[in-house]
Design brief:
GO terms for molecular function: structural constituent of ribosome. The model has no long low-confidence stretch (mean pLDDT 81). This protein has one domain (9-123): Alpha-Beta Plaits. It is of the alpha+beta class. It contains five helices and four strands, in the order E-E-H-E-E-H-H-H-H. It is 29% helix and 25% strand. The protein is elongated.
């Protein structure tokens, strides 16, 4: 079996406004499992003589029967343009954007601070605040 991974690119388009090249990527991996995106980025970096940190690949689907996977890739001119134009979730996959803390700890801390407030003067106003009544 042929264990070599080849990455031909098709439909290459240069986008001058967004300072990037975008392309359809066909990964041929006969006799191998699906190729990691980091490997694809490294091979594309060698092909286009750039660094892997400005290459973003996504949307890969393996064809029925295996051996071929098709996806989409973008190569930016610089990392600044990538940070400016890429969606935040793709930047987060490359550790270029930090997600806000969505755990319950900040909420619990706010409740603990507000808990000692006396609620007795507010009891007559509670029926007015309830929208279901």
């Amino acid at each position: 079996m042929n264990d070599i991974v080849t990455i031909p690119t098709g439909k290459l388009m240069t986008d001058q406004l967004l300072q990037r090249k975008q392309m359809v990527i066909d990964v041929l991996h006969t006799g191998k499992t699906t190729v990691l995106k980091t490997e694809i980025r490294e091979k594309l970096a060698k092909m286009y003589k750039t660094t892997p940190d400005v290459i973003f690949v996504f949307g890969f689907r393996t064809h029925f029967g295996g051996g071929k996977t098709t996806g989409f890739g973008m190569i930016y001119d610089s990392l600044d343009y990538a940070k400016k134009n890429e969606p935040k979730q793709r930047l987060a996959r490359h550790s270029l954007h930090s997600q806000p803390d969505l755990s319950e700890a900040p909420f619990e801390k706010a409740v603990a601070v507000a808990a000692p407030l006396p609620l007795l003067p507010l009891l007559p106003l509670l029926p007015l605040l309830d929208p279901g009544v």
